[in-house]
Design brief:
Blueprint lengths: L3 H33 L8 H31 L15
Helix pairs in contact: 1-2
Length: 90
């Protein structure tokens, strides 16, 4: 059933997760490139690999939650109407 409050909350969560996944993706991209170009950087390769591996778990969990909220946002117009004041008028 449609619930405008749940829809708006899912939309806010989805937008926040988009920002978080962009930040995590950029950090993972930089650490991934640094693992292959170690002759140009003076960082510990084990530290870079550790950061990349730990961030991948966070990246996957953010992506999973973002997929669930996106699925709800996608299916919202097709859900049956709920009688009451919480419905969005179209």
């Amino acid at each position: 059933m449609k619930n405008a409050r749940v829809y708006l909350t899912a939309k806010k969560i989805h937008r926040l997760l988009v920002l978080l996944i962009l930040i995590a993706g950029i950090i993972m991209m930089v650490t991934g490139i640094m693992m292959y170009l170690m002759q140009y950087f003076f960082f510990d390769p084990f530290l870079i690999r550790y950061i990349h591996n730990k961030l991948s778990i966070l990246f996957a969990s953010i992506l999973g939650i973002m997929m669930l909220t996106g699925l709800y946002l996608f299916l919202f117009p097709y859900l049956p109407d709920k009688r009451g004041d919480n419905t969005i008028k179209q």
